[in-house]
């Protein structure tokens, strides 16, 4: 695991919140909610932004992989 304590905590909380949610509900998780829950100081807000970005990137990848493959016709 890499990152400071705030980054690890933000990522951990984000994964807990994502579990069991639909894609649309998971996309509603915002860095400000993560920061508020963890009481992050302003200097550590970027850690919660990384967690939100990771959620969005993972869900974007998931959506791409769920699309039917295009045949080479």
From TrEMBL:
For biological process, the GO terms are: iron-sulfur cluster assembly
Domain NIF system FeS cluster assembly NifU N-terminal intervals: 1-67
Q: Which GO terms describe its molecular function?
A: iron ion binding; iron-sulfur cluster binding
Record SUPFAM superfamilies: SufE/NifU (SSF82649)
From what superkingdom does this record's organism come? Eukaryota
PANTHER family registered for this protein in UniProt? IRON-SULFUR CLUSTER ASSEMBLY ENZYME NIFU HOMOLOG
What is the protein name stated in its UniProt record? Iron-sulfur cluster assembly enzyme ISCU, mitochondrial
Its gene?
Answer: ISCU
């Amino acid at each position: 695991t890499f990152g400071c304590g705030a980054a690890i905590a933000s990522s951990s909380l984000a994964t807990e919140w994502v579990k069991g949610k639909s894609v649309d509900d998971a996309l509603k998780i915002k860095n400000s909610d993560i920061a508020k829950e963890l009481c992050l100081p302003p200097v550590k807000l970027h850690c919660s932004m990384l967690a939100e970005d990771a959620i969005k990137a993972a869900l974007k990848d998931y959506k791409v992989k769920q699309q039917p493959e295009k045949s080479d016709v």
